[in-house]
Design brief:
Blueprint lengths: L10 E5 L25 H12 L5 E5 L9 H8 L5 E6 L8 H7 L3 E5 L5 H8 L4 H14 L5 E6 L7 H14 L2 E6 L9 H7 L4 H10 L2 E4 L6 E7 L2 E8 L5 H5 L3 E4 L4 E3 L9 E2 L1 H5 L4 H13 L36
Parallel strand pairs: 1-2, 1-10, 2-3, 3-4, 4-5, 5-6, 6-9
Antiparallel strand pairs: 7-8, 8-9, 10-11, 11-12
Helix pairs in contact: 1-2, 1-11, 2-3
Length: 337
């Protein structure tokens, strides 16, 4: 299904909870207004089944920290039959004991937040001494066959964006057969402290140029057109993907995602809560027609957050673009992508 800007919508990110066992300074909590409500496994399954009817074929589970859900394995088992792929973003601290169970339930792969391999830097950024547990979780995921494992690293000025830190992460990824995703810090309103953003934001142009100069192969991810660079060290390949969304109209024009908040609303963009669509009335109905209609409305309301000369005019103006669902705007939260 296409939105009014001609963008196919095929991916769904589902926030399972806003709870987390870290307190990351770069957390955006999926841009969601604060809520303690969480969807039940049966409700999540119905939402995914309805999404599949309008073309959703990939689901990513996120949070907060999804492994804090004691019913996570059940959730994966329920939704896996409805789509081509189920993946998950996690900080990895609880993954060691769950990786095999999740793989057996139908989880295909994981993204693991690994802000730094240096224990002191990791603790400074997350509030927890957790590097060893995260690494154990990554290795358990590899043994379970959750591949490719992607290591999510937010580039932070003076902390994680220097060449030595990136080289260390790439070497670790090569050892573990993982990929590195170097991600630009995003200033998500109401979720990221703008003072922290001003100090720590790092523009990725220099690192991207260095990667392009040394790569033996360059590809583009179908999601956002993100560049993916392949390197070789000691005869073994390793992959670095650069995620550069800030002030990037091309990134927005190649976005194929919808999001489901932990309290059951469809969200068209990480950066704004304009035009949220409530799924809960549809969940109260006996049949799924209302849920399908909610997806169709959410797709119709999607609009690129950053626009430029390459952004086409919407096919039909829609006054609902101006609808904003109010929500609390808490301080920095506690999770990752």
């Amino acid at each position: 299904m296409q939105d009014r800007y001609g963008r196919e919508v095929s991916d769904l990110r589902i926030s399972l909870t806003q709870r987390c066992n870290l307190k990351c300074v770069f957390c955006h909590m999926e841009g969601q207004p604060a809520s303690r409500a969480e969807l039940r496994p049966s409700e999540i399954e119905r939402i995914v089944a309805a999404g599949a009817k309008v073309g959703i074929d990939r689901v990513k589970l996120t949070g907060g920290e999804p492994t804090l859900r004691t019913d996570l394995v059940e959730i994966v088992a329920r939704i896996a039959p409805h789509v081509a792929e189920v993946s998950m973003t996690t900080n990895g601290l609880l993954l060691e004991g769950l990786a095999g169970l999740l793989r057996a339930a139908g989880l295909a792969r994981v993204n693991v937040s690994l802000p730094s391999l240096d224990p002191a830097t990791y603790e400074r950024l997350t509030g927890v001494d957790g590097v060893a547990r995260a690494v154990a979780g990554i290795r358990a995921a590899r043994r379970a066959g959750l591949a490719p494992i992607k290591l999510n690293v937010v580039a932070l000025a003076g902390l994680t964006d220097d060449r030595a830190a990136v080289d260390r992460l790439i070497a670790f990824a090569q050892e573990e057969g993982a990929w590195v995703q170097l991600i630009e810090f995003e200033n998500v309103s109401g979720r990221v402290d703008p003072r922290i953003y001003r100090v720590l934001h790092s523009e990725l142009g220099r690192l991207k140029e260095e990667a392009a100069a040394h790569a033996f192969q360059t590809e583009r991810n179908r999601l956002h057109g993100r560049p993916r660079y392949w390197f070789e060290r000691d005869g073994r390949p390793v992959t670095l993907e650069v995620v550069q969304p800030v002030e990037n109209p091309s990134f927005c024009m190649q976005c194929h995602r919808l999001r489901v908040t932990s309290d059951g609303r469809l969200k068209g963009c990480l950066m704004t809560n304009a035009g949220l669509v409530d799924l809960r009335p549809g969940l109260d109905a006996e049949h799924d027609e209302a849920l399908v209609a909610a997806f169709e409305l959410a797709v119709a309301r999607r609009r690129p957050f950053f626009t430029g000369a390459e952004t086409p005019a919407p096919r039909t103006p829609d006054p609902t673009d101006l609808v904003t669902v109010p929500g609390d705007r808490p301080a920095v939260g506690a999770a990752f992508f």
